[in-house]
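== Fold encoding ==
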Amino acid sequence: MKKTGFFWVSFADLMTSLFFLMLVLYVITFVILKVEQGKIEAQNEQLKKILQIEDQFAPLQNDKDFFYLDDCEKYVAKELIGIEIFEPDKTEILDVHRETVIQVGHKINKFLESLRAQNAKFSYLLVIEGNMANSWDRRFSLDSNYGYSKSYERALSVYNLWNKEGINFRGGNVEVLICGSGFNGLCRDSIEKNNKRFSIQIIPKIEKIDYK
């Protein structure tokens, strides 16, 4: 009889231990599911913001002063397409085109300000890319160091002009990248002379999600 009682006591202890074990596992599972649910909700919210940004880029894409290169998501100034805004082998913008470039800068800055107002938690990368047109006989290599250095200097010249005119893109949450693609790069115009230009990219950078 004593042995039987001991058995039932041990069995009861075992069942109690299993109950608490299952309870702990349930709580852990519940917490994990809540965390995962929070992650999914945060990701959905972030996706919603990304879709909103695409809509917010529409005014710049439809602006009469810009031409949007859909394949590589770049903007070029319509008035400067097919026009050499620099002297051959020079990096300073010709006086006749300076006002147009300044107006383009003001428009881009105004657009960035509207993006910042609508998406305070986002940051943006503004890429100013200089482009070069090859000679009629294509004597320059696509990876010519001359092309890369000159196109970079031209992009820098554009940035310096804007900066001189008080157009400060670096205010707030905008980072500026100045670069040159030389005689290379995506979305080059099939008419080579039309590549005498600079192009702009605006890339949204979404903040890291806090899942806590």
